[in-house]
Design brief:
Blueprint (H helix, E strand, L loop, with lengths): L6 H9 L5 H11 L4 H12 L10 H18 L3 H6 L2 H29 L8 H6 L7 E2 L2 E3 L5 E3 L6 E6 L2 E5 L4 E6 L11 E5 L4 E6 L5 E4 L4 E5 L8 E12 L8 E4 L3 E5 L3 E6 L5 E8 L2 E5 L7 E4 L3 E6 L2 E6 L2 H5 L5 E8 H12 L2 E5 L6 E7 L4 H9 L5 E5 L2 E5 L1
Parallel strand pairs: 1-8, 6-8, 11-12, 21-24
Antiparallel strand pairs: 2-3, 2-7, 4-5, 5-6, 7-10, 8-9, 9-11, 10-11, 11-14, 12-13, 13-16, 14-15, 15-18, 16-17, 18-19, 20-22, 23-24
Length: 404
């Protein structure tokens, strides 16, 4: 691909079916960054008479001219007035203009395909968008001690249930809050509740002691309905969660997973313990925690300092410096990949977008880097990976195919 190629030249190549997959990605990306003036010039220079593909039939040329006329009418405006628009309005105009050009491209591609059915058009962006998948959101199910279940994303805000001195509320911010009421909260200490998120779901809960927990997708937390009269605050986790533990020296806080136990007094930390992942990772951000290895010949334990991460894999525990931005990316609504294997990345994508991933001839250990919002449709995440040239994706109903 030529360096510093103009968007006008790329557009011409696209119309002539001469773009490489990488050039098409570059063209699509440029649509969102061009100024209004550049957008209009790109359409005018490329679609005006004499710049359309020479191989088109007279009927196709007429159709192309009609497209140009219709879009040009929508984009025509006084440039002086545009300059005076507030920033947010100018930015909105750019997005609208980009959308109009994208429609032109889509219409032209369909027209060319109809006229030349034997030609294979490599429009990767259109291929991804055609079966796009929206991001996940606040979704969780609360299971009470008596077995009753409440689908939190469907429940109304306010009081959900009152039981044994505890009131469980759902806030307008998508939080689940446990509040002690009256003097009989100790009666609930022997009962347990469970909150679980599906694939494509996250949720925040404030436990009876005030501890805040953020659950990532496909995760589960089991906890006492009340910590009153208990010697310790012990919860069980599968999946991933970020904890901000309320300090209470008289009641140590423990998090139990399949392979480890984490003990704290008051601190901020993240635990990733998915069943399909070989390693369990605990990352400390504030305070101090003791991580006890429950696997292997030597159980052992280590004390983490802020900025450190413990990794338990195949029965062995080790400590390394943590990439805190990458660890907290999911909680902050971002995907961050720093030289991460494709298979590891796609497991995160699978959990967040609730989709199956199939591999066809692609190296699952190939490393990728980049960042993208978790609030975007899956196509944008996949495009970021495709820009490296090391993988291509196809989205079908309920699954993503990763190919060479």
């Amino acid at each position: 691909m030529e360096k510093n190629i103009s968007h006008t030249e790329l557009f011409k190549r696209y119309l002539n079916n001469a773009c490489t997959p990488q050039e098409i990605e570059l063209l699509m990306g440029q649509f969102g960054t061009l100024t209004e003036k550049d957008l209009r010039k790109s359409i005018s220079d490329t679609l005006r008479k004499g710049n359309e593909p020479a191989s088109l039939s007279p009927e196709s040329k007429q159709h192309l001219a009609s497209l140009y006329k219709n879009i040009s009418a929508k984009l025509k405006t006084d440039e002086d007035k545009i300059i005076e628009l507030p920033f947010y309005k100018r930015k909105a105009f750019v997005y609208l203009s980009a959308a109009c050009i994208a429609l032109v491209v889509t219409g032209i591609a369909a027209m060319l395909h109809n006229n030349y059915p034997n030609v294979k058009f490599k429009d990767l962006a259109a291929e991804l968008v055609s079966h796009d998948i929206p991001p996940g959101g606040n979704k969780a199910v609360l299971t009470l001690a008596d077995g009753k279940t409440i689908t939190l994303n469907e429940a109304a805000d306010g009081e959900l249930v009152k039981v044994e001195g505890m009131v469980i509320r759902k806030t307008g911010q998508g939080q689940l809050v446990y509040e002690v009421v009256g003097n009989d909260a100790s009666a609930a200490a022997g009962s347990y509740n469970t909150i679980s998120t599906p694939k494509g779901g996250t949720y925040q809960i404030i436990l009876p002691d005030g501890t805040k927990v953020w659950l990532n997708a496909a995760s589960k937390l089991k906890f006492p309905t009340s910590f009153v009269s208990l010697n310790e605050r012990k919860v069980e986790l599968s999946g991933e969660a970020y904890f901000e533990v309320t300090k209470d020296a008289s009641q140590p806080f423990r998090v139990l997973t399949v392979k480890q136990e984490v003990q704290v007094l008051g601190t901020h930390f993240n635990i990733s313990s998915y069943a399909e992942e070989s390693a369990v990772k605990t990352t400390l951000f504030e305070g101090s925690v003791k991580v006890k290895n429950l696997q292997g010949v030597k159980e052992g334990h280590i004390i983490l300092k802020p900025g450190q991460q413990s990794i338990i894999n195949e029965g062995v525990i080790k400590v390394t410096k943590a990439d805190v931005d990458e660890v907290l990316a999911w909680k902050n609504g971002v995907f961050v990949f720093n030289d991460e294997p494709l298979e590891s990345i796609m497991k995160k994508v699978s959990r967040w977008y609730d989709v199956e991933v199939i591999y066809e001839g692609v190296d699952k250990n190939k490393l990728f880097g980049g960042s993208v919002s978790r609030f975007d449709n899956v196509s944008k995440v996949l495009r970021q990976l495709e820009l490296t040239g090391g993988v291509h994706f196809k989205i079908e109903e309920g699954r993503i195919i990763a190919m060479k």
